Amino acid sequence: MSANEVIHAGLNLGATDPKTHEEAGSAIFGFWVFLMTDAVLFALLFANYGVLLSGTAGGPGPAAEFKLSSAFIETLLLLTSSFNFGMASLAMKHGSQPRLLQVWLLTTLLLGAGFLGMELHDFATMLSDGAAPSRSGFLSAFFALVSTHGLHVFAGCIWIIVMMVQIAVFGTDARVKINVLRLGLFWHFLDIIWVAIFSVVYLQGLIR
Amino acid sequence: MSDRPRAHVLRWVLAFVAAVAAAAWLMAEPHELAPVRAAATGRAEHRRERRSYIIGFVFAVLLTCAAFAIVAWRLMAPGTALAIVFALGLLQIIAHFRFFLHIDLRKSAREDLQLILFSSLITLLMVGGTLVILFNLRHRMM
Questions:
Q1: A72 vs B85: CB contact, 8 Å cut-off?
Q2: Is the CB of residue B139 less than 8 Å away from at least one CB of chain A?
Q3: Does B29 lie at the interface with A, CB-CB under 8 angstroms?
Q4: Residue A9, in any domain of the structure
Q5: CA distances (Å), A123 to each of A95, A116, A133, in order?
Q6: What is the ipTM of this complex?
């Protein structure tokens, strides 16, 4: 197996670190299996949302509760953070010092935290409007879907902090590199789920 | 919309075909531009990978803005708008897979690609099946 060969999905370390590259193959494949089971979870939450969309039970509906501007800003925040993580992966793969990697991870973390802050603010506004999960089937499905994604982003933020500590303590050794590769897949995956959420939930709800 | 069901279906089909064609282009395009891989030194590879992320980011921002613009400024009838928004979303997901997760039809390790395709198949079956059965049930209950 040559170092230039692509042995797993996602960014390959390749010739920059042939030994870790070999190790990463099975580690990353296992993580892909997890990501795909997670995708199945989200797919069923989407199906659930689609079924319950019209079940507003006289309560507030999508058009009354969703705000296009905040959905747009959240989308841009998460998208930019995903791009920043790409830059972090490249800094890890090609850079000689971990400083740049830390900076990109920090900006990714801040953008992710900004996304979470806006989402929590939206939830708080909805709750104060009386649009709680217990109000109707539609709202239950909405909160189940969107807050599951939010929890994933929260877990991703914690994971970024853990990786920043690991990089500071251990440097970029093989284990740390493979962990950052996994975290990258996770973070890009969450952005893909968000694309589905803003299309199916927010935009569909606001089309008039 | 119900008085012109055929035009409605036609729009969905057109949106779907456009999405698939653009997706095929997205998946295929970089091969022709990519330099011979064996010759790619570290620096050239770095530049190529950074360009891939930047192209992906630009694509994603454009597709996002287009989808939000359609809804914000009510550029078309609701049925068409929904079809186009979903098609743009599908395209954006494919662009993310291609440029951020580096998955394409030729370069990827085989079992990874098979895993993803198989998961997509299960997902489609489960989501499609759920929607068909439950909407049918609702229709009968009305």
A1: no
A2: no
A3: no
A4: no
A5: 40, 10, 10
A6: 0.92
